[in-house]
Amino acid sequence: MKRISVILSVLVAAVALAALMLSVASAAPSAPAQRVDFTKETSNPTPHVGEIFTFTLYFVNVSTETLEMRVIDPNPAPLYLEILTPTITGGAWYSPTIDG
Fold it and tell me: Where in the chain are the domains?
């Protein structure tokens, strides 16, 4: 009878340890999902020489965290690009010369 009691005690301890390990593992913080939705639009997909058109880049942080990101969207060659006027909202910034 004593042997059965010892075996049961060991089994109970093993089950308790396994339950403790599972609760610690499930309580561990997980990395937040970081996702940015991106859309690029143009006012004229086939502009002719001399026509003015607009490219608009939309970025929406759908994460719960503040993100730091770098986006590179190559503009047409400077030979063909006369004026580039950035309009930035929402804490972003623009530099036409970085990594250009």
Answer: 1-30, 31-92
